[in-house]
UniProtKB/TrEMBL annotation:
This is S-adenosyl-L-methionine-dependent methyltransferase. Keywords: Methyltransferase, S-adenosyl-L-methionine, Transferase. InterPro entries: Ppm1/Ppm2/Tcmp, SAM-dependent_MTases_sf, SAM_mthyl_Trfase_ML2640-like. One of its GO terms (biological process) is methylation.
């Protein structure tokens, strides 16, 4: 279903499904022989959500008939698992470093099923604000609570849409704009319209005291080019057919959830607003973690850049 300006969702519908998809990647990475990360909670979310296309990363061998739809399906799935593992590790390291440097307040924008507050070694007194759709956060908290999981940092849930006035909700929840903050935007930007992305960064800027840090999974203009959009649509149509073959609810077409259109480059924007910026491409990040990409598959993982800024 096409997006609208004020659409909302539960965990198993529309954009909520993408949070389950990422949890699937983290669950698969966690149980792999040489995992980059350890997220024991990811599997709990998948089990609580029941059967669906989000469990695809957990099948050891994709069903044979899937090769009819996409002969590279197995290679793509492996590459995406590695991508999600690498991305998770990158943001884990970012938050641990920031906390070790004394940044006591964190905001996870579009937290989804991110369980960092429950699994990273946060110093005492750390507070983690999680922003996402109310139903997504409710599903996460209920699942963790039902398994008796206790957070390591103090978690504050802020159930609000990131296209609405989230700074107001964040401050009302106790966020202190005068204290340094570590911010993350992981798996978020393509789900926002270009103008909402610009507004998001304006707002982050206005809430960031000196000493703040930010980590972003950014997508270059190339990701939103006509050619890339067409390629993604073609790929998504294949995955929709895959979901149908698996008997899953094919109502969620991930390609339909993304907003196209030219974007502000995050690296440039942060640099122009006083942040000291470092950036690394997805392929380089993954290589640094010992993960190689298949050379015979076109665009096996998103052409993204991991950007860190310090104010
Ligand atoms: N950051 C998490 C991770 O990496 O596991 C979740 C990523 S998931 C691909 C995208 C998340 O963005 C979902 O949890 C979705 O609910 C959230 N999201 C997307 N657009 C949003 C919006 N406008 N307001 C609040 N949350 C949003």
């Amino acid at each position: 279903m096409a997006r609208t300006d004020d659409d909302t969702w539960d965990i198993n519908e529309s954009v909520g499904v993408t949070a389950l998809g990422v949890a699937g990647g983290r669950a698969a990475e966690t149980r792999s022989p040489n995992p980059l990360i350890n997220d024991p909670f990811a599997r709990l979310f998948l089990d609580a959500a029941g059967d669906g296309v989000w469990k695809i990363y957990l099948s050891d061998e994709p069903p044979a008939e899937l090769a009819e739809v996409d002969p590279d399906f197995g290679k793509r799935t492996e590459a995406m698992k590695s991508y999600i593992g690498s991305r998770t590790k990158y943001f884990d390291e970012f938050f641990v470093d920031a906390a070790a440097a004394g940044v006591g307040q964190s905001v996870i924008l579009a937290a989804g099923l991110d369980a960092r507050a429950w699994r990273l070694a946060w110093p005492q007194g750390s507070v983690v604000y999680e922003i996402d759709q109310p139903k997504v956060l409710a599903f996460k908290l209920e699942t963790l609570k039902s398994h008796g999981a206790e957070p390591i940092a103090r978690v504050v849930d802020v159930g609000v849409d990131l296209r609405q006035d989230w700074p107001k909700a964040l401050v009302e929840a106790g966020f202190d704009p005068s204290a340094p903050t570590s911010w993350s935007a992981e798996g978020l930007l393509p789900y926002l319209p270009p103008e909402a992305q610009d507004l998001l960064f304006d707002r982050i800027q206005s809430l960031s005291a000196p000493g703040s840090r930010i980590a972003v999974e950014a997508f270059t203009g190339d990701f939103f080019s006509d050619e890339s959009v067409a390629q993604r649509k073609e790929q998504m149509e294949k995955y929709r057919q895959v979901a149908q073959k698996l008997g899953s609810d094919a109502g969620t077409d991930i390609g339909e959830l993304l907003y196209d259109g030219k974007r502000t480059e995050v690296t440039d924007w942060l640099g122009a607003h006083g942040w000291k910026v470092t950036a690394i491409g997805a392929d380089e990040l993954m290589a640094g973690y010992g993960r190689t990409l298949p050379s015979d598959v076109d665009a096996p993982v998103p052409n993204s850049v991991f950007v860190e800024g310090r104010l």
